[in-house]
């Protein structure tokens, strides 16, 4: 049975004396930002998290698994980074499709087209992303929170 995967990471947000909101990610010591308002801090946190995860993907490294921490709020990366993470995870857990070349063959597309799916700066269509994830034996599930 397939498990649902969330790419939400915990962050601690604290209001400072000057009225700004500082954000520190639990799983990334280098992951911090701030905002003048709580909403701005959360938006900036999404951007920082997306960039951190993109750097892991660029170096073909598995990002740390999200943990839990009392008092933390969950921050999601942007949609294109979530799509790239889903494909990365699917390739690394698939029994039959392990490389972009194998993925391209399974999708009946070019290697270049399959490779773009793993690039967080690329916006894949849902149809193409669904086809890629299905090729690895998984299902794409979209939710709105």
Structural commentary:
By secondary structure, the chain is α+β, with helices and mostly antiparallel strands. 42% of the residues lie in helices and 13% in strands. The protein has five helices and four strands, in the order E-E-E-H-E-H-H-H-H. The protein has helices at residues 38-58, 79-93, 100-107, 111-117, 126-135; strands spanning 9-15, 21-25, 32-35, 73-75. A four-stranded antiparallel β-sheet has the order 3-2-1-4, with helices on one face. Helix 1 (38-58) runs parallel beside helix 2 and helix 3 (100-107) packs across helix 4 (111-117). The longest helix has 21 residues, at 38-58. The mean pLDDT is 88.
Distance between the termini: 24 Å
Instruction: Tell me the structural class.
Output: alpha+beta
Report the C-alpha radius of gyration, rounded: 17 Å
Report the portion of residues in β strands. Answer: 5-15%
Helical content stands at 40-55%
Largest sheet: number of strands, sense, barrel closure:
4 strands, antiparallel
Query: Could you spell the SSE succession in H and E letters?
Result: EEEHEHHHH
Strand order of the largest sheet: 3-2-1-4
Instruction: Report the mean per-residue pLDDT as an integer.
Output: 88
Overall geometric form = elongated
How many separate helices? 5
Poorly predicted residue ranges? none
- Tally the beta strands: 4
Essential attributes:
four-stranded antiparallel β-sheet; 145 residues; alpha+beta; 5 helices; elongated
What is this structure, in a nutshell?
This protein is of the alpha+beta class. The protein is 42% helix and 13% strand.
């Amino acid at each position: 049975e397939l498990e649902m995967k969330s790419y939400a990471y915990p962050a601690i947000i604290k209001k400072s004396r000057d009225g700004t909101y500082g954000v520190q990610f639990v799983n990334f010591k280098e992951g911090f930002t701030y905002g003048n308002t709580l909403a701005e801090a959360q938006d900036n946190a999404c951007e920082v998290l997306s960039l951190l995860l993109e750097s892991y993907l660029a170096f073909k490294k598995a990002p740390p698994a999200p943990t839990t921490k009392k008092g933390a709020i969950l921050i999601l990366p942007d949609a294109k980074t979530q799509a790239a993470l889903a494909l990365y995870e699917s390739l690394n857990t698939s029994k039959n499709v392990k490389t972009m070349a194998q993925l391209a063959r399974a999708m009946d597309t070019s290697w270049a087209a399959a490779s773009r799916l793993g690039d967080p700066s690329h916006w894949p269509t849902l149809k193409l992303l669904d086809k890629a994830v299905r090729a690895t034996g998984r299902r794409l599930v979209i939710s709105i929170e």
